[in-house]
Amino acid sequence: MSDCPNSSLPEFAFIGRSNVGKSSLINMICNRNKLANTSNKPGKTRLLNYFVINEAWHLVDMPGYGYAKVSKKDRKDWLKFSQTYFKKRKNLVLAFVLIDSRHKLQQVDLDFMIWLNENFVPFTIIFTKTDKLGKAALQKTLTNFNSQLSEYWEILPHSIISSSVDKRGRDEILDFISKSAIQFKTLHK
Ligand code: GTP
Ligand code: MG
Q1: Is the CB of 43 inside a 6 Å radius of any atom of ligand 1?
Q2: CATH number attached to the domain at 11-184
């Protein structure tokens, strides 16, 4: 934690399974291809990577969880420091939990969201890689996903649909971040 920037700027963290598209999404939001390092090999991001945007807020690219090909020790270490970060980071506004829109609800994602909820960490879901699905297939997976989630929560978490390839969701994410950042600054004056 002591390596995190000593700053009170509102902070937004991007978390999700390895390879879900966290780093690609940060690049897409920032309109920069090579700001965050991406790879088709899971386990690329290994640290908390900080990006200061317009000197107004931080985006934090986090290592992924739950990928079998990442060593057990790395997975354990990353989960531990991610959880410490979520519990301790005072200027964290919210976490974006990225979910691959092609898959049904996975146990690791559910476990992680339950953990966030139990630890009072606000989060929003971002569905990624929607360019890989047709309209009907996307609608079907989202309906299934929400009905699975509604077995655990009466009120479903807020969610945004995105693609780093066709930039879907960019305006909505940026708008959401700016509004949440303003709210955070007002509350912490
Ligand atoms: P780790 O750092 O390993 O946890 O992965 P990550 O979640 O940061 O994923 P990353 O952004 O590195 O992307 C993983 C792979 O998915 C790369 O090959 C990306 O090109 C691809 N990818 C990411 N987002 C999208 C998307 O919206 N659409 C498509 N078609 N591919 C994507
Ligand atoms: Mg990454």
Answers
A1: yes
A2: 3.40.50.300
